Amino acid sequence: MSSETSDTLDQAMVRSSGLDTLLRDLTDRAVQEVPGAAACSITVRRGGRLLTLAGSAGLPSGLDQRQYENGSGPCVEAAETGVEQYAPDLAEESRWPAYTRYALDTGVRSVLAVPLAVEGETGAALNYYGERPGVLGTGRDKARTFAARAGDAIDVALRIEHRRQSAADVRTALLSRSVIDQAIGILMARERIDARDALERLRRASQHRNVKLRDLCGQLVAKVSGPASGGRK
Questions:
Q1: Handedness of CA 208, 227, 187, 233 (dihedral sign)
Q2: Are strands 39-46 and 124-130 parallel, antiparallel or unpaired?
Q3: Neighbour tally for 45: CB within 10 Å
Q4: Mean pLDDT over residues 195-217, rounded?
Q5: Spatial separation of the C-alpha atoms in residues 94 and 87, rounded to whole Å
Q6: What span, in angstroms and rounded, lies between the C-alpha atoms of 188 and 57?
Q7: pTM, rounded to two decimals
């Protein structure tokens, strides 16, 4: 890949305000860089299932999803086996009949799916779509080089996103703990019991009402700390 392309991807990383923006930028860039590509998408296995993280402008709706539903197709094969899949002419392709019919109906005639090495993920692929038979053949080397560079960028983006999610989880846990502690304090003062008994009462109430402990405590804290309205009932 040229240094100009590398600079462009690095700049996309800096410009991006989030994972979605970055990945969409990458797929649009792939269409510009790979001869014959009319559209591009990124497939990644997350939470035990394949999904499309991003797609370029012009990507036919449902093109990847149909593969995931059928459990077969070039994107699925590339992501799950780590082997590049190339269909120069879907009109003559016999490997994925259900997907092939759908793709042809959307105007896609050729597909190239290049595996991505993404840290922490069990399967990923960068998928290129062409509108004419054989149109992606001359661009396969560029497609592979771009996929390798994009894989590095996706790795970085996913790690950043994971850190953000981890930080959000920590904040949520701290807020939950704070609300529970406040509710325990309220019961201790109101019922003149110790912290252990107060927590046990809250747990029993949570189970009896089928409400999460955090939510139950939040309701109690809100009720006690909320503005007075017409006196106590």
A1: negative
A2: antiparallel
A3: 18
A4: 84
A5: 10
A6: 59
A7: 0.62
